UniProtKB/TrEMBL annotation, chain A:
Its main location: membrane. It is found in: Cell membrane. Residues 85-301 form the ABC transmembrane type-1 domain. This is Carbohydrate ABC transporter membrane protein 1 (CUT1 family). It comes from the Bacteria. InterPro entries: ABC_transporter_permease, MetI-like, MetI-like_sf. It is a multi-pass membrane protein. Keywords: Cell membrane, Membrane, Transmembrane, Transmembrane helix, Transport. The chain crosses the membrane at residues 24-47, 89-111, 123-143, 173-194, 236-262, 282-305. GO terms for cellular component: plasma membrane.
From TrEMBL, chain B:
Residues 70-263 form the ABC transmembrane type-1 domain. This is Carbohydrate ABC transporter membrane protein 2 (CUT1 family). Belongs to the binding-protein-dependent transport system permease family. The keyword Plastid does not apply. The lineage of its organism: Bacteria, Bacillati, Bacillota, Bacilli, Bacillales. Pfam families: BPD_transp_1. It is found in: Cell membrane.
Amino acid sequence: MQLDSLYPYVERVIDVVQSKTQKYLFLAFCLLPTFIMFCIFTVYPMIGGLYYSFFKWSGTSSVMEFIGFDNYTRMLSDSVILRAIINDYLFVFIKVFGIMILALFFAVALTQLRIKEAPFYRIVFFFPNIMSVVVIGILWQFIYDPNIGLVNGLLRAIGLEEWARPWLGDMTWALPSVSIPAIWAGIGLFMLLLMGGITNISKSLYEAAEIDGASEWQQFWKITVPLIWPQIKTSIIYIVITSLNGSFVLVQVMTAGGPGVATEVMGSYLYQKAFEDFQFGYGAAIGVLILVLSLVSVIILQVLLKKEKVEY
Amino acid sequence: MQILSTLSKIAVRIPLFLWSIIVVFPLVWMFIGAFKTNAEIFSSPWSWPQQWNLNNFVAAWSNYNIGTAFLNSLFVTILGSLLCLLFAIPTAYALERLRFKGSDVLLNTYLASMMLPSVLGWIPLFFLLLKFNMLDNLWALSLVYAVSQIPFTIFILVSFMGNVPRELEEAAAIDGMSPYGILLKIVTPLVKSGIITATILNAISFWNEYFLALILLDTKSKNTLGVAMDLLKTSARYESAWGVLFAGLCIAVIPVIIFYSIFQRHIVKGMTEGAIK
């Protein structure tokens, strides 16, 4: 409060001490170099991607042929694109449910139940979040390895020999198998976000509910979930964006889209088309598709997850 | 009642305990595997190594290029983090403290860019660097990394700069200190903890980065850890050199574990704030 009342006076002091030119020079010094770099390495590539998507181009300097929307119409008849889009959304779906259910359960358990070793779990669960995707991918390839892998080894050990299979080489099981490491590596962050929300809920609400005879299950649905809805919403949207924009890294490391196109997602298909088949125009068009789909998904989610703000 | 609540506490601990095992066991398995010979990994993937020797680590480090890649990753991580601070600190200060027309628009532009799929920009970025002869260049890769984290770093620093008392800046200005001096000597030291938080997260993301390095680097001597690990994986498959691959994974993970154990609080804070944005 005191600061606010001082503010006009203070502003004048600064104006007296520094001339206008000096001020603008300093402003330019602060903003321009950064903004120029941002334009060169972030804005230009984005716009460039949009621009390249209207060309047929193999990357060699001169032959760059303008073909209008041909890359986009080609996507319509490319069956791999459809498969990639479906796979991307399957990943999103498995991740949102897997991560949210587990993260919510762990968050409630670690905040509400006064478990002594809670900090230990928090530290352990979060760790995979900061591991490199390459390391996670390679490690899980081992875990799924048909011969020396942990999964098949475990299945054999408990007598379910017939369940053992080459997980990442199996047409039906490859996709869920690739999404498990994503859940494994993703839970910690969202657990912490939700824990932050839960610790801010006033204890008296639970005490009042207890007196009214509400079961713990009722308390969870009637108090905890509505009050941490903003965190739940943020988490879901964050998972969807990062998955659509980045799940291909794990796919590319673990299966490169295979077997066949069973795990192909838009990002990995972009990489293969552009940097392996040298169809840069088509690759750029796939990039635009990713941009459009992720923006549309976020807008739809914003509407779907909208809920009146709850305050008790 | 007492018994019931004890029972439910035990029941809740079971999934917690199971998930800890699911997280920790693969990592332990990887560390143990790094000390085994290939024959051991195949004959008894679950057992302890017969003797603890560092042969796999030595082989990975020197024969499979992991040593060079480790140093390259260290280089881009340090240079990238420093450059990012150099770009982000002045802008964050200007956006938070110097009011000017369009400051909100600029801040929102930076923040919104975090939502865009960077993969869309990779094709033009590749040809941009090709044109300027900057492909296969660790300096250029560091610069690209630094710029990619500018928005996130600005976002973190702006919230920390909001807490710096204005009186300090004003007093320094009245004493005749230039705005450059105020930024460098007054404000920057006061947002140290924000700088640490942002830098740790930047450093981790640069250390772990894989795809840009794959696209923008070419020769073996320039590869960073992510790319080198991927190549090691491919050759390990042909030669069945699994122990070496495990050792390589350990070399890539150990610095992160050390970092995590020292800066756990900063990392958690930075990541949760970054996700809330």
